[in-house]
Amino acid sequence: MKRRSSFFAGLALALLGCVSSLSYGQGYLKASGRIITDEKGNKVILRGMGLGGWMLQEGYMFRLSNIGQQHKIKAKIQEVTDSAYTAKFYNQWLANNTRKIDIDSMRSWGFNSIRLPMHYNLYTLAVDQEPVAGKNTWLEKGFAMTDSLLNWCKANHMYLILDLHATPGGQGNDLNISDRDPAKPSLWDSQANQDKMIALWRKLAERYANEPYIGGYDIINEPNWGFESADDKRGTNETKNEPLRKLMVDITKAIREVDQKHIIIIEGNGFGNNYKGIFPLWDKNMVISFHKYGNFNKQSAIQGFLDISEKNNVPLWMGESGENSNTWFTEAISLVESHDIGWSWWQLKKIGINNPLEIKLTPSYQKLLDYWSDKGPKPTKAEAIAALDEFLNNIKLENNIYHKDVTDAMFRQVRTNTAVPFKKVVIGDNTTINAVDYDLGSQRTAYFDKDTASYMYTPGVKTQGNRGRAYRNDGVDIQRDDSGYHVFNIEDGEWLQYTVEVTKKGNYTAKFNVATDSAAGQISLTVDNTASAGNIAFTNDDASKNWHLAELKNVQLKKGINRIRVYAEKGGFNLKSIQFIKE
């Protein structure tokens, strides 16, 4: 399972061959009618990744939903350590979380752009911290980090899109998104905060005006605010959005004073999707961003944005999406690319399986989580520092768990409906296959599961995808156990495919390591779509769920490549492994 950096560099030469030549631009990007082009007029489909959690931590990314905003996380760390260690922790966090190896790896997987979620406090002081009211103190830290990231992107011929994720004062009622402190004036309650935001964008544009690998300026992330009604906490019902439009017009004016070249990307209210009152557009080089999470991947889900694009003759960009299963990823990317819409996924790494890189959850860090959620004792200062130091090491790419199934779903599976081996398996006289190592591929190609994605924003739909949230991000339900992983929650009619190489033609006995959840289960098997050796029924009369072997004899395998499918004729059992023994 620990597929680390030695694998990364070599993985995606094949992936890159699958990526359209239209993906990689030359020179400054620009809005050309309803598409984005490079300086030579070639269409560019942005295929990007957001670096969530680097400059701005959101609690859920690190199992800290009960704490929430970054400034609260920082206070919790200081409470179990001290102020000096906390400052050191955050400096090391910024150094370790995203490095050149991360950008190199993303390029090798097929990405051609990066979206940088910026926290304003790395670039300038908060309004209430300024020594002179109304003045702006510029901090080199954020600019230097952005410079380094841009250089890594340049080296990989990738575009960098700057995204102001946390604005001065905070732009919404979802506090985590912008690290907002509700005890202080919001962006919308303070002209000083708005002036600082405008000045920051002018400063950024002045610094990067002549950088062609800056793909654009995403000037405000996911505003969610009730301007007409304070009860409209999400901003989804606003009909005018006058303060939002005015601020974006003012920011654009400040940018254009120093930079006439770069695309300006705007987002509506209601987490980027409510554009009522925003039009007409005020600049000729603009892109409309929308964010898509947890709804169905049908044209009707994006039709409103397609209508906006057509009416205003402006390109669209799906500036944020993800946080779902591989099935959903493939479908969403296929949908938007069919309309020449680029995308940026959220996010590269966190604790969890539905991103390319997973940060490992260790026992020492879990003890901190238990304390912070009132489920365990307070660690000593030494224990807390040791746990946090280990965590800082684990956020490095080489210590992450790489989920190749995620990147496969985002690139290869968008372009071909074929399955390939998840791991190379050679069947000799006695070979065991882990059940969780079924083929890489889409639903109904590599596997069939009745529950393959989450539609959390669709009323009445309660599907989840992988209910165990372990090992892989497909629809197959996988649980961790004492010796690894197993497939569970198997329902009638579900199946798994394994592409294997067989060294000797002949008959084999297949031994299935199973544990029944109910009185009985039944398995059948096909080889290259041909039924083989009937099926096997098994019971566990005491319903103890202990692992035991169920045998199916006379399974005929040919020498060379065989595609074996294991069918659950009757579900209600768990599957750990399949052993093939030459008869």
Mind sketching the topology for me?
Layout: H1 5-11, H2 13-18, E1 30-32, E2 35-37, E3 47-50, H3 70-80, H4 83-97, H5 100-109, E4 113-119, H6 140-155, E5 159-166, H7 175-178, H8 191-208, E6 214-218, H9 242-256, E7 264-267, H10 269-272, E8 286-292, H11 299-312, E9 316-322, H12 326-337, E10 342-346, E11 349-350, E12 357-358, H13 363-372, H14 381-394, E13 401-402, H15 404-410, H16 412-415, E14 426-427, E15 430-434, E16 447-448, E17 478-481, E18 484-487, E19 495-502, E20 506-516, E21 520-527, E22 530-539, E23 548-557, E24 560-570, E25 573-582
Parallel strand pairs: 3-4, 3-10, 4-5, 5-6, 6-7, 7-8, 8-9, 9-10, 11-12, 14-19
Antiparallel strand pairs: 1-2, 12-13, 15-25, 16-19, 17-18, 19-24, 20-23, 20-25, 21-22, 21-24
Helix pairs in contact: 1-5, 3-4, 4-14, 8-9, 12-15
| End-to-end gap | 31 Å
Kindly state the number of beta strands.
Answer: 25
- The helix fraction, in percent, is 25-40%
- The count of domains is 2
Strands side by side in the biggest sheet: 3-4-5-6-7-8-9-10
What Rg, in angstroms, do the CA atoms define? 26 Å
Shape verdict: globular
Task: Supply the helix-strand structural class.
Answer: alpha/beta
* CATH architectural name of the largest domain: Alpha-Beta Barrel
Please give the largest β-sheet.
Answer: 8 strands, parallel, barrel
**Helix count?**
16
What is the CATH topology assignment of the largest domain? TIM Barrel
The fourth-level CATH homologous superfamily of the largest domain is Glycosidases
CATH class descriptor name of the largest domain: Alpha Beta
